[in-house]
Design goal:
single chain, 107 residues, alpha+beta, six-stranded mixed sheet, 2 helices
Length: 107
């Protein structure tokens, strides 16, 4: 089984995804990010690679991440989990943006 690459431009840049869970590990190097893809989106499977962008970090910069878990929800939506390791400038900025989001009382 090979990796499937999907560029979900409409779901990620056209419509913001709903962040349902975010947690940064105690040592700060790993981010677990769970988002909800809207109904009628392309379905993901565990092991798929999805290109993600963050408007708050660099709105035109895309990075591939592996889907750690994917679960279909009632109504056609899908819950997708990513684990993002802080290894560079972009992933570090994503960690910081999520940390600010968590601090402000969001998931």
């Amino acid at each position: 089984v090979g990796w499937k690459l999907r560029r979900l431009l409409t779901q990620l840049c056209g419509r913001p995804l709903k962040l349902t869970f975010a947690k940064i590990s105690t040592e700060g190097s790993l981010l677990r990010l769970q988002v909800e893809f809207p109904p009628n989106s392309k379905q993901c499977s565990t092991g798929d690679a999805v290109y993600l962008c963050s408007r708050s970090v660099k709105p035109k910069e895309w990075h591939p991440f592996t889907v750690c878990a994917a679960k279909n929800l009632p109504g056609g939506a899908q819950s997708v989990t990513f684990c993002i390791t802080k290894v560079g400038i972009w992933t570090g900025a994503v960690h910081e943006a999520v940390a600010r989001h968590i601090t402000n009382g969001s998931p």
